[in-house]
Specification:
By secondary structure, this protein is mainly alpha-helical. Helices cover about 40% and strands about 5% of the residues.
């Protein structure tokens, strides 16, 4: 049984996904090159350091070092000094290019084309109910959730395959254009952005500083790959049981995952919440703002006949009216009605 396709993706969006796949190919190639040799000198079963008869490691810990330090403000002449002169902002670590140069350069070019399309076209504008082309707000939100990857990904190089990097690149593109967040997932702003509501602009506004925004995003691509390679460098150093290993790594490997968040914020400045007050879950409710809970109107009481006066004494005086206890008797299932009260006539008034 084949399911009919209900939605047709716009040609530009199809091209955007194709370019995202090309970026993923380059990211996968750079990652595979970066983790090559990370476990050299480690036992493949126990992941402990292989030592000689004197207790010295057979392979030096420093035999594997995949990173180089670069000035990200001078990487592209178009974005020269886009971060100013601060070394804390400009100096970063990235994976050294050895044999993945061709695939990575193609990925960088495809990533720039993705940014060009995002800047000039409303690729992720939710379609309305009447349109048959594009994705609805719910479908965009579903795509955002389905492409999200856990931070607790198992540290095995074979799991960071091409499929992983395709999901990672697509999700990164959705994040910077939709303004959605996993920890505060809400489609309200996305649902309000539609072709029939011109008063509500779409989330991806024009950025105030194109040079700075693109500089952030192009370097974020290096950061995304380097952070995954860094996981295996830390595993290697942990195996060598160096007491100062973590401190040395923090000094020599200049990576900051906040660079990725900053790149999305510069591309989509108005859609990133500035504080937790935007979350309906953690926003404190003030008593003056909470209206009183409307209570339902009281249900009308059923109209019943007024209770018979002296009903209990009459029931006692008339034992034949009480239902027998035998279940076979029909009166046990249907007790006879009580005799209505007949008031006695008033005595004649004197004179």
């Amino acid at each position: 049984m084949r399911l009919a396709v209900r939605v047709t993706l716009p040609a530009r969006l199809v091209e955007w996904f194709a370019m995202a796949h090309e970026v993923a190919v380059g990211a996968h190639a750079l990652f595979a090159q970066g983790v090559r040799g990370w476990d050299e000198g480690l036992d493949p079963e126990s992941h402990k350091v292989i030592r000689d008869e004197h207790g010295a490691p057979v392979v030096s810990k420093m035999a594997y070092w995949p990173f180089e330090t670069y000035d990200r403000t001078l990487e592209n002449p178009l974005y020269a000094r886009c971060f100013g002169d601060s070394e804390a902002q400009s100096r970063r670590s990235r994976v050294k290019l050895v044999d993945a140069t061709e695939a990575w350069r193609a990925a960088e070019a495809a990533h720039r084309r993705m940014l060009d399309m995002e800047a000039h076209h409303e690729l992720f504008l939710p379609r309305d109910a009447q349109s048959k082309e594009g994705l609805t707000a719910a479908e965009l939100g579903g795509l955002f959730l389905l492409t999200n990857l856990s931070d607790n990904w198992a540290k095995r190089t074979e799991l960071f395959d091409l499929d992983f990097w395709t999901l990672r690149i697509v999700h990164f593109g959705l994040e910077r254009n939709l303004g959605l967040r996993m920890n505060q997932f809400c489609l309200d702003a996305l649902a309000r952005a539609s072709p029939n509501s011109p008063a509500e602009p779409f989330l991806r506004h024009s950025f105030p500083d194109p040079m700075r925004s693109r500089c952030w995003l192009e370097n974020a691509l290096h950061c995304i790959v380097a952070l995954k390679v860094y996981l295996f460098l830390k595993l290697r150093w942990a195996a060598y049981d160096d007491a100062k290993g973590e401190q040395v790594l923090n000094e020599q490997v200049l990576l900051d995952r906040h660079d990725i968040e900053q790149s999305k914020a510069h591309w989509l400045p108005s859609a990133r919440p500035k504080s937790t007050e935007t979350s309906p879950i953690v926003k404190p409710l003030q008593a003056v703002e909470v209206p009183p809970l409307p209570l339902p109107p009281p249900a009308a009481a059923p109209v019943a006949a007024p209770p018979a006066l002296h009903a209990a004494p009459l029931a006692i005086k008339q034992p034949t009216l009480s239902a027998p206890s035998s279940p076979s008797c029909p009166l046990a299932r249907h007790p006879p009605p009580r005799r209505p009260y007949q008031p006695s006539p008033c005595p004649p008034c004197p004179g």
